[in-house]
Amino acid sequence: MIELTPLARPYAKALFSSALESENLDGMANDLKTMATASKTDGIKGTIEDPALSRQEVVEILTKLFDESVGETSKKLLSILAENKRLNLLEPIHSIYQKLLEKHKEQNSIEVFVATNPSDDAKEDIENKLRSSYGKDANIFFSKDPNMMGGLSIKVGDETLDLSIRGKVNK
Fold this sequence. Notes:
Blueprint: H1 5-21, H2 25-39, H3 42-49, H4 55-65, H5 72-83, H6 90-105, E1 109-114, H7 120-134, E2 139-144, E3 151-156, E4 159-164, H8 165-170
Parallel strand pairs: 1-2
Antiparallel strand pairs: 1-3, 3-4
């Protein structure tokens, strides 16, 4: 499979520069998150990959879909990506943009891998403990990994704290 990050980086950097200039960093981040999340769904994937639809038709469908939820810059991004046959880059663009935003705001990004989704109380407890260690404005994301068997694994930057059953078994 082709690595999409190098292809997505110029788009993410251009969006970040534009958002920084217009003082809309968080708004752009929300737009990208919305589009990246939607691009993972089967319906959107099917629309993007449908050979019967022209690029213009795909842009029109996506623009109507995101009409109320994203700004004009994001709609232009959809048009440019469709024109260049790069709509598959929405997720990596969001990821790179998020890293640029965190670096700009000097925030930490923390990914918590869990075997099963924790209860709301447990999730809140984990978030509070991580924020007390890494800063109250840290971005915390939860990802489900059933192969862990139980426990959790925390990734901050390039460091990983493995508190999973799988990690203990491997040791």
